[in-house]
Design a protein that fits this description.
single chain; 339 residues; archaeoglobus fulgidus dsm 4304 fold; 11-stranded mixed sheet; 14 strands
Length: 339
Amino acid sequence: MPALAPVSGSLEAAAARVAALLAGAGAGAGLADRTLSALEFEATVIPHPLQRTAPPADVWAVDGGQALVADARCLQVVATRASRVRFHEGACVLEDEGELRAQVLAGAEERAAALAALGLADMAADTPVDVNLLRDRWEWEAVERSVEEAEPGGLVLVDGDLLPDWRIPSSFLGRVLGRAAERAILVAGITKHSSLSRGGAPLVGQLELEAAATLGPRALWWATIARTKATATEPATEAAALQVVAARLDPDARFAFRVDLPAGADPATALGAVSALCDDAAFPGYPYPLAVADRLAACPGWVRQEAALRLDELLAQAGVAPEVRERAFADRHRLMERA
């Protein structure tokens, strides 16, 4: 009897589709980004050799974290923080995990209060507010402070791309990058797991294979992928213009990364300096100041539990009865799984 064809919606069908994407995408296929960001892609993406240089004397790294503290479905209490790390002359001189900020996500009143607290009160009243906006807003506030505090000629590394949440006006990015340019500070965003694709398959993974074949398995390389473009609602200013590249930053690195740079930066020069920060034995190829910031920003289970316990104490002090708190925030799924 012949084998049955995979049924649409089955795991077998999903595996067949993924296999076709991973094996079939190639040169000439379309470049895309699932985040639908305003990028103009290069006609061809060609890996170029990269020469490692010396690291900047002053390096800052910024990363954000988040936690769901309490969930009543119709309302949630979330916490976010933005952590900063500073390496000066190769030594870590600052580890700031950042303030844990709590916010209620619920109806229109809480939404308006959140937008006001974020400095976005002039946005439409029905603008959605979620944990992504909260984390991104305070992360960029930390980037702005780092740009002001860095020494001229320094480097500010950001976890993720340099395209703020769509609800944050592009003028904010323009102000931060414009100030960085005035102070000769390079701002670079490093994305650990990129959504860039070619022919529906992960682009960076394809470039890793192509660069290994053309430049050698231990070669450092970079390749320009895209640049930001203006939109009808948010025309790109010169200061806010970006270039998106992929780069392998250490010969022992398993992975390459998406790197966002200001449009005026020379990729080879900028990435050569960033590469000098990517020789950590624990995770070669990724800037070690960002690895420290990532550890600080993370909100592990004990952070969420402490915040939840403190919230429960404050609700009790406010006169909310235990049974009311239990009915609102008990995790029914977890209770049922214990049975």
